[in-house]
């Protein structure tokens, strides 16, 4: 009984470490593939479109409602110690440093990691990946590298757009519902916002983008057989991408804003 | 010439190949037969370098497949997959011309399209299918497109993985005939795996029977019926009784 439990812990630890090792190896291969020819520009352009441009609506909607709710919350919280005036600056700082990149990243993870994993997983189970190899095309360069590069470059742009829309959401609620003067709201937003607040959020976005596409490709390439295998790969990709984003967010925040 | 020498491959505790020795002379059509799960696909994947053998060697024209320059090496191969394995995000002609649109064999788009249409014609498809997507085609047509893609870059060696699986008998006959014609016409070396005996008789010059991870019998296709080998006899006559235990 005790031995069985210990063996169980051992097995899961081994599986975890092996999985981690495979993931890191996959990451190294991906980075190597990004920087070594041949480059597939058409695949890259198509990834830019599907990962970046087509994610704009979902990121924008997430941001506007988040900014609006944030303004209400800060106003309610601030009024407890007569600090309602901080609403514009806290909305701006909150959106750019944390909520823009994290919520934007999570929404992109849901949308993009799942679709990449499902697409590549289906290609794997229908032997399309093997077919690529027999057609002298390295799947890491043809499928993984363009997607990971596109996500790394576009997610920061999505975050920047999300930041602006989120701040605008706060502005709408601030001026429309909370009685802020429009000019004063904007002045407060701009005066208290530092460049680093925005840049740090964009760096987070790039890291999240990299993780999202990497995880999607990893689970797709390692998908099990049949519809069930692809389903499991898709689910695992979204869960892993989301958890990695939150963990990476903590580590980056620790790195950027302490010490 | 393709040579397999003492090829072993296991997946976990499951020893799939236990010392496969096989020679396929240049320009010959070799068909490997055997029941499901006997390692036919793994053998083929070892030759292609998609699976690395645990022991033994696979030589193509004397060159070890695991150490050869992959790109140049694979450029000599064509393969027809069991489910055709067409890229569903691309049109039919882009699938056929995949190799001609990128990499070392890259041609201009219009040249590649012309070659693709010519190859489609060779497998009996009209030019108007060129702009359709694979999902819009029937199973038999997908197989033909897969065949056109396999021969698009005029390979020296062509692999066929269960070419008639999932097709009706007439379409299977058409595909068998096409394969035979194309292999003879191109003078290519062909390696086919199948368990369809009609296919074997239509395509093969030589036959090898794979069972329990080793080659049990190999010889010319016309010697197959008089081999006296109990494994081969049971298989080609489809008998439930014999040395090969059938799982009921």
UniProtKB/TrEMBL annotation, chain A:
* InterPro entries in the record: ABC_MlaE_roteobac (IPR003453), Permease_MalE (IPR030802)
Q: Where are the transmembrane segments?
A: 12-35, 47-72, 148-173, 202-221, 233-252
Subcellular location per the Swiss-Prot or TrEMBL entry:
Cell inner membrane; Membrane
> Where's it mainly located?
membrane
Q: What does this chain do?
A: Could be part of an ABC transporter complex.
The protein's matches in NCBIfam families, at most eight in alphabetical order, are given as: MlaE family lipid ABC transporter permease subunit
**Protein name, entry field:** Putative phospholipid ABC transporter permease protein MlaE
The upper taxonomy is:
Bacteria, Pseudomonadati, Pseudomonadota, Alphaproteobacteria, Rhodobacterales
TrEMBL record, chain B:
Organism of origin: Actibacterium lipolyticum
InterPro entries in the cross-refs: AAA+_ATPase, ABC_transporter-like_ATP-bd, ABC_transporter-like_CS, P-loop_NTPase
UniProt keyword Ligase, yes or no:
no
Q: Which UniProt keywords apply?
A: ATP-binding, Hydrolase, Nucleotide-binding, Transport
List the SMART domains hit by this protein, alphabetically: AAA (SM00382)
State the Gene3D superfamilies in the record.
P-loop containing nucleotide triphosphate hydrolases (3.40.50.300)
Which SUPFAM superfamilies does this chain map to? P-loop containing nucleoside triphosphate hydrolases (SSF52540)
Record-given protein name: L-cystine import ATP-binding protein TcyC
Any Pfam family:
ABC_tran
Residue ranges spanning the membrane: these are none
Q: Residue ranges of the ABC transporter domain?
A: 2-237
In short, the EC number is: 3.6.3.-
- Does the keyword Protease feature in the UniProt annotation? no
According to the UniProt entry, its GO molecular function terms are: ATP binding; ATP hydrolysis activity
What sort of enzyme, by top EC class, is this? Answer: hydrolase
